[in-house]
Design brief:
Length: about 350
C-alpha cells in the first residue's frame, strides 16, 4: 500500500517541503534509501547520506539546513523531532500491517471460551475451556492458551507462545514468540528414599498492562498465590523468572538474566544482561545492576551495583583497577623480598 507525503505529514504533525503527492510504499535507512522509500535524518553523523539518497521522502528536523543541493526526487517532511516522528510512523505502520481480524478455520476453540470483538486467532491456535480474550487482541498461529486463562484488550501474542491455565494477561501486552507463561516452578522436596518429590504449583502468573516480554522468556507460576509482572515492565529475550517472584512497575531487564524464586524487584529498576539473582531477596526501587553481576542479598533503593557477588559500583571499579595491577604488585613484592633478604 502506498502513502503520500501529505498523508505522512498529517500523521507526523509535519510540513511538506517538495511534492505533497510523492508516494512511498516501504521504509529504509537513509544510507540505503531506494525509490519509493521513506527514511529519516536525525543524527548529524548521517547527514552526508541525505545528499545522495535515492529515497523518495525523508523526515528531517525543522532546523535542518542543507549544505549542498538535495536530490531533485527527494521530498522533505519537516517535524520537531525526526526520530520521534519516524518512530510514531513505524508504530502506525506496524499496527496497519498487524490489523487482522477473524478466526482461521484450523484454530481449535472451546465452546466455553469467550472471544471479544475484532479478535484475530491464527492457524492451529488452541484456545481452552473458559478462556477469556478481550477486544482487538491478536493471537498468531500455533499459540496455546490453556483453560481459564484471561487475556485483555489490544494484546499481541506471537507464534508459539504457551499460556498455561489460570494465568492472567493484561491490556496492551506483547508476548514475543516462544514465551511460556505459567509453567511449573523448579520445586522439589527430598523424601525418605532420597528421591526428589515434585512440589505442586497451584498458583498462577499475572501480567499487568503495557508489558512486553521477549522471545523464549519463561515466567513460572507460583506455588501458591501469583507470580506478578507489574505494569510497564519490559523483559528481553531468554529471561527466567521463577515462581512467586514480583517485578515492579517499569523495570527493564536485559537478556539471559535469571531471577530465582520469591524474589521481589522494585519499580524503575535497570538490570543488565546475564545477571543472576538468588531467591528470597528484595531489590529496592530505581536500582541499577550491571551486566553479569551476581546478586546474593537485599539491595536498598537507588543503589548501583556490579560484580559477583555484587557491591557498590564505585568500590567495584576501584577494586577492579587493583585487580588488574595484581601481577605488577606481585613483581614489586618479590623485588622487595629480595632486597629485604640482602
Amino acid at each position: 500500500m502506498k502513502f503520500l507525503a501529505k498523508e505522512i505529514a498529517g500523521l507526523a504533525g509535519g510540513k511538506v517541503e517538495g511534492n505533497p503527492d510523492a508516494a512511498v510504499s516501504k521504509l529504509a535507512k537513509i544510507e540505503e534509501g531506494t525509490p519509493g522509500a521513506l527514511t529519516f535524518l536525525s543524527n548529524p553523523a548521517y547527514a552526508q547520506y541525505i545528499y545522495s539518497t535515492h529515497a523518495t521522502i525523508a523526515i528531517v528536523n525543522n532546523d535542518f539546513v542543507a549544505e549542498q543541493s538535495l536530490p531533485e526526487t527527494l521530498t522533505l517532511i519537516r517535524v520537531a523531532d525526526a526520530r520521534q516522528a519516524f518512530a510514531k510512523l513505524l508504530e502506525a505502520y506496524n499496527q496497519f500491517r498487524m490489523n487482522k481480524v477473524g478466526i482461521d478455520p484450523s484454530a481449535v476453540i472451546s465452546s466455553s471460551a469467550k472471544i471479544g470483538a475484532n479478535v484475530y486467532i491464527g492457524a492451529k491456535a488452541v484456545i481452552g475451556d473458559h478462556v477469556t480474550i478481550g477486544d482487538n487482541t491478536i493471537i498468531h498461529p500455533n499459540v496455546t492458551v490453556n483453560d481459564s486463562a484471561r487475556i485483555g484488550n489490544n494484546t499481541i501474542i506471537y507464534p508459539g507462545v504457551v499460556i498455561y491455565h489460570d494465568c492472567v494477561i493484561g491490556n496492551n501486552v506483547i508476548l514475543q514468540s516462544g514465551t511460556i507463561i505459567g509453567g511449573d516452578g523448579f520445586g522439589f522436596q527430598p523424601n525418605s528414599e532420597n528421591n526428589y518429590a515434585k512440589v505442586p504449583h497451584i498458583g498462577n502468573v499475572i501480567i499487568e498492562d503495557h508489558v512486553e516480554i521477549g522471545a523464549n522468556t519463561t515466567i513460572d507460576r507460583a506455588t501458591l498465590g501469583s507470580t506478578i509482572i507489574r505494569k510497564g515492565v519490559k523483559l528481553d529475550n531468554l529471561i527466567q523468572v521463577a515462581h512467586n517472584c514480583e517485578i515492579g512497575e517499569n523495570t527493564v531487564i536485559a537478556a539471559q538474566t535469571g531471577v530465582a524464586g520469591s524474589t521481589k524487584i522494585g519499580r524503575d529498576c535497570l538490570i543488565g544482561g546475564q545477571v543472576g539473582i538468588v531467591g528470597h531477596v528484595v531489590i529496592g526501587n530505581r536500582v541499577k545492576i550491571a551486566a553479569q553481576s551476581g546478586i546474593g542479598s537485599n539491595i536498598p533503593d537507588d543503589e548501583i551495583v556490579q560484580g559477583s557477588p555484587a557491591f557498590g559500583i564505585g568500590d567495584y571499579k576501584r577494586s577492579y583497577v587493583m585487580f588488574r595491577k595484581l601481577p605488577e604488585l606481585a613483581d614489586k613484592i618479590k623485588e622487595l623480598e629480595k632486597k629485604a633478604q640482602k
